[in-house]
From TrEMBL:
Subcellular location: Cytoplasm
Catalytic activity as recorded in UniProt: (R)-pantoate + beta-alanine + ATP = (R)-pantothenate + AMP + diphosphate + H(+)
Binding site for ATP: 28-35, 145-148, 174, 182-185
Active site: 35
Residues binding (R)-pantoate, per UniProt: 59, 151
Residues binding beta-alanine: 59
The keyword Ligase is annotated on this UniProt entry: yes
Family annotation (SUPFAM superfamilies): Nucleotidylyl transferase (SSF52374)
One protein family per Pfam: Pantoate_ligase
Protein name, UniProt field: Pantothenate synthetase
Entries under CDD domains matching the protein: PanC
UniProt lineage: Bacteria, Pseudomonadati, Spirochaetota, Spirochaetia, Spirochaetales
Taxonomic source organism: Treponema ruminis
Broad class of enzyme this protein falls into: ligase
Length: 251
């Protein structure tokens, strides 16, 4: 696996690849089996594969959340190498934001709902960084998890609005056997929190109105951030031990 740290180097490699199809998986590191499912598809469906590991500060409204994000670059490299990834793009802030975030991409509607209502500026950061990454990597296909379903929908809208030549591939949520959606943030939970966390998905899957689900979650010891049914999907975010967990199920 080749590790690339600058825009110039990646662009040079991409132009040398010419017409070869490139499957791309953007991540923030702290890689786990959820990421791995996207990576395996990117490898199997394209001539070459690229993964980015970049903890994007502009999508964090909570500084503590950013500072405590559980990621280890050496572990990530080992996992990617073992999976058979061709290129790892691992930039720094000055590389990604030579403008110091004076320019940003904004969506004016859905990005202000759900996670966007609770995390102001979050989706501006997501859309901006993914647009930058697409311009550098020029992927044929880019793989995103349905765990972050709102993010996937907003990126899909961005691709259509700006006529981008990339095919987005939504990938199913990977869960632990107990139903808990795998997330880098699960590593921040204590043993007790980890034992309680699967109740989150169990309650979402159990049916009922938004208010009923919120009540069940609070009773089970979660602090509810939101529970919203929209477009035949139930979206929810909760806090457990100060760790923010999100999930969604079809309705
Ligand atoms: P992140 O590193 O959290 O930005 O995630 C990178 C990509 O992996 C995003 O497209 C996520 O939706 C996806 N992802 C994270 N966790 C899971 C999971 N449990 N199942 C499927 N995709 C996931």
């Amino acid at each position: 696996m080749k590790i690339i740290k600058t825009v110039e180097d990646f662009k040079k490699i991409r132009s040398e690849l010419g017409e070869k199809s490139l499957g791309f998986v953007p991540t923030m590191g702290g890689l786990h089996n959820g990421h791995l499912s996207l990576i395996k598809r990117a490898i199997s469906e394209n001539d070459v594969s690229a993964v980015s590991v970049y903890l994007n500060p502009t999508q964090f409204n909570d500084k503590k959340d950013l500072e405590t994000y559980p990621a280890n670059f050496a572990d990530d490299c080992a996992l990617l190498e073992k999976a058979g990834v061709d290129y790892l793009f691992a930039p720094t802030y000055p590389v990604m934001y030579p403008d110091d975030y004076k320019y940003m991409l904004t969506e004016k509607d859905f990005s202000h709902e759900l996670c966007g209502a609770k995390r102001p500026g979050h989706f501006d950061g997501v859309l901006t960084v993914v647009m930058k990454l697409f311009n550098i990597v020029r992927p044929t296909r880019a793989y995103f998890g349905e765990k972050d379903y709102q993010q996937y929908k907003l990126l899909d809208g961005m691709v259509k609005a700006f006529f981008l030549d990339v095919q987005l591939v939504p990938c199913p949520i990977v869960r632990e056997e107990n139903g808990l959606a795998i997330s880098s943030r699960n590593r921040k939970l204590s043993a007790e929190g980890l034992a309680k966390a699967p109740k989150f998905h169990e309650i979402l899957a159990s049916g009922g109105s938004e208010a009923e689900i919120a009540e069940k979650l609070e009773k089970a010891g979660f602090k509810v951030d939101y529970v919203t049914i929209k477009d035949k999907r139930l979206y929810a975010a909760v806090f457990l031990e100060d760790v923010r967990l999100i999930d969604n199920v079809e309705r």
